[in-house]
Amino acid sequence: MTKQSTRRAEVTLPLLIAYIDALLPTLAQATDAQTNTQSDSKSTKHKINDKPELPPDLLWVTEDKNTLALLHTALTNHADFQAGDTTQSADKLASSTLLALNQQPVSERYELVCFWLPTLSAEQLQQYIPLLMRYRDLYAAHLLIALEHNIDLQPYGFTPFDILQTLQTSTLTGDTNLSGADMTQMPAAAHAFGSATLWQFNLYDYKQLPNWLNADYWANPENWGKHRW
Question: If you average pLDDT over residues 195-204, what whole number do you get?
Answer without folding.
Answer: 86
